[in-house]
Amino acid sequence: MKALLELLQKRFNQNMHRHANTNWQTVEDKLHAHKNHLDVLQKMEDTGGEPDVLEYDGKLYFVDFSKESPKGRRSYCYDEKALYDRKKFKPESSVEKVAKDIGIKVVDEAMYIFMQTVEDLDLKTSSWLKTPNNFRKLGGALNGEKRYQRTFIFHNGADSYYGSRGFRGYIQL
Q1: Residue extents of the structural domains in the chain
Q2: Of 34, 70, 36, residue with least CA distance to 51
Q3: What does each C-alpha distance from 98 to 53, 55, 77, 125, 172 come to in angstroms?
Q4: How does pLDDT run across 63-81, given as a tens digit for each residue?
Q5: How far apart, in Å, do the first and last CA atoms of the chain sit?
Q6: How do residues 111-150 score in pLDDT, each as one tens digit?
Q7: Per-residue CA distances from 41 to 61, 91, 108, 128, 173 (Å)
């Protein structure tokens, strides 16, 4: 875990615009207080998320800041219901299951839009977003991307999946 901490500290120091009011010692103290966070962060890293600290809504989070949707988390439908309901060409898994296995929550629309104000993400890919239950019950799910210097939020059937769509997740510190 020492190598992971060194990598996270280096990324933290190289990207102060994501957390200008926070110092590394505060982050490290929170990580040591919650040992399971390091295991989750390793899984985020292993799947291509490049997690870093984000100051958002008065709280600190580790969020996937890979330039494009994490490579190790693409080609999934939205949730287990969509996976079950899909009759042909089922993907390997769902965003819901993979996020649970990693130990993260899926970024929602508000956090995603905020992240896009911090820096440009998903310029060639898109990311599934946590979808409100009332919308999901109608069969759809949300995704976002940035094109033409603008953040777009779209919808798709929850059972759809694409090689260029993954998902971003987070843990709160």
Answers
A1: 2-172
A2: 70
A3: 21, 25, 11, 18, 18
A4: 999 999 999 999 999 999 9
A5: 17
A6: 999 999 999 999 999 999 999 999 999 999 999 999 999 9
A7: 11, 25, 19, 20, 11
